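Handout, section 4.2: multi-component inputs.
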Amino acid sequence: MIRCHRVRSALLCLAIVPLASSLLAGHLGAQATPAKGGALFDPIASVLQSPRCINCHPAGDVPHQKDTHIPHLQHVIRGPYGTGSPALPCSTCHQNRNSAEGAVPGAPGWRLAPLSMKWEGLTKGQICESIKDPNRNGNRRTLEEVIAHMKSDSLVLWAWHPGADRTVPPVSHEQLVRDLNAWVAAGGPCPSN
Amino acid sequence: MAFTITVNGSTHTVDVDGDTPLLWVLRDVLEMTGTKFGCGRALCGACTVHVDGSPRRSCITPIGSVRASAITTIEAIGSTATGKKLQEAWLAEEVVQCGYCQSGQIMSACALLTAIPRPTDADIDAAMSGNICRCGTYVRMRTAIHRAASQA
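Output:
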């Protein structure tokens, strides 16, 4: 009985090993093939379309809050300069760092992105084209300038330190910079959708 | 740690931790209780003061961030022309019920009229929606703001 059990176990192992090898090879094969073309923008889009970024790149005059993108409480509006209405500016509550316990998020220069830099409602491809266009990317003439902005702007960096229990973008900031460099090196290709 | 701040034109040196909210310093240390605690999270506006003329929620403003800025509270706003007109309008229109939110309301209204001397209803909405009134005297506040604005 024990001898039969050992034979069956050996046969089972012999059957499993090729299957596992095949699956592993397939997985490694998938990882070994780098993204190219418009797919290079996918991880970048996952950051730009995450709540911490897109909430302040609205298509209208109202910022959004939370992962549910609700309109900002207290009837907060863009105002003439993206810093709120004259009597309820962003600085009324938002300071140059998160408040105690992160209740109120903060970073230097807290403001909305200009309307020209709206991402709300755009597809990945449209956002990609937008950040390459100086008329829609804050007048950045080269993709290297776009990278510099994503690398060091205080409001961008805040997204990974948002305070309280706010979610962070799906890739780390360091990975985002690597993905941006790869995307720029490939000429900044945009997804078709 | 000692901090020297300017409140309503007077200089005060207070010995507190740098992350002590300005509201605590005003009420507990300087005993200026006109500014109120409502929520402690910048949601209600009861703690509104002016810092260099701009409205600020004192409940989340650490004293260490104030530095040499000029702080104005409800205790002194009536000595400004706009503040005086607002307080008179508030009385004339009988705005106040319990009164708890009204310090913050007047500070925000004063910032509004300073920036926009003749505000529209939309301007008033944009400026004042951050100040909550549980008694619901919003209609009277709007009337009082228009009244004060008309007295140029």
